[in-house]
Amino acid sequence: MQADFHYYATYCAAVLAGYEHEDALKIAYSAQFVDCCTATYLKALSATVHAATSQSQAELVDMRADTIGLQDITRIWASFHFLPRDLYAKTPRATKAYKNKYRLICGPDGALVKDTVELAKGKDTEAAGIAMHVLADTWAHMNFAGTPSLVINNTTNEFYEILFDYSMQKISFRHSPGASDDIESHTYNSTVFNPSENNILNLGHGHAGHLPDYSFIRYKYVPAWDNYRQCIKDNPSDYRKAFCQMIFAMKYLRGTADTFTTGVYDEDAIAPYSEKITEILTKRQLDASEDWKKFGEELTGKAIPDFDVSTYAEEYKNAEDKDSTGLGRFILAALSQKSMVTNKIFTSGNILAGFSIDYKKKGFGGIRDYMKLVRESAGKDHG
User: Fold this and answer.
1) Which pLDDT tens digit goes with each residue over 211-251?
2) Does any domain span residue 332?
3) Which residues pair with 223 in a beta bridge?
4) Is residue 165 part of a domain?
5) What's the Cα-to-Cα distance from 120 to each of 13, 44, 213, rounded to whole Å?
6) Alpha-carbon distance 68 to 164, whole Å?
7) Strand partners for 218
8) Is residue 292 part of a domain?
9) Which of 161, 168, 144 is nearest to 74 (CA)?
10) What is the pTM of this model?
């Protein structure tokens, strides 16, 4: 997904869930900031790089392809962008190495979605924003994994857009960094094929280009993970479910829903605006930001500022108590989300995201920057 959904649509969902304008903006900001919070950005603020929720292309190119480097990549991408659907998924006649990668395939309504939303309960708007980013991406990025893997993430070049009259148009791919996708000619950018199993070009949906990130497109393709059987992806339907599920999740976070249950999509909340939302989701355009922004401003009568990655940077740099700032709270929530997902992956018997220690049983033995989470948790346990 892009800023059009993570920022503007998330703002709309927050408002429909009952949040006031200012809190909805904070949630939307954090949801979009997940795509921007790289180690490079954090270093510039003298903040912990372990709170990184994304990696730039330059950072990925510089990453080592050894076990430690691959675990670092997987912790970020599986925790925030490709949340695994089923860490215990069955796949016949496969090696343990293959099963470990197969079980990191992203998808909606898995146990980790519930864990992610419940983790944000009782916390600040920054935690809610991170949870909404993770939840939304399970719909956009389904069937790809947040770890470099040719045998999982590769596809053939046989992509076809399913148009609204149900005719099909062949999609062509090119590798032209910086060039815009061309909807009219059905020409899109993608990563080039690399035969190495663990090459970063085989991370996530690179072979499908930005097709998973556009709400309007329906397409069929042939993925490696399903033994090269044809798969159909209906983004307008999936994005609608993502939007409705965010509303339900945020009602739970606000306390107006008692529990969060996967598989529940709040269609009632969008009923008065169903036609407008369908129009936005199905409009053939590369960026739906203006349409979502207009809808959000109609909902509240308030102006939605453009997203600015540096909005909270100066506040953080100048603060004595950095944890109390907006960016400080985001960092704590990011560390918490990454720690939770890494622990779930590790305890499932899968070490692709690295090792995880249950400090309540064995004492703290991890990265120093996570110690603040231990202290925070201990305070709540004894408060």
Assistant:
1) 999 999 999 999 999 989 999 999 999 999 999 999 999 99
2) yes
3) 155
4) no
5) 16, 27, 25
6) 46
7) 234
8) yes
9) 144
10) 0.93
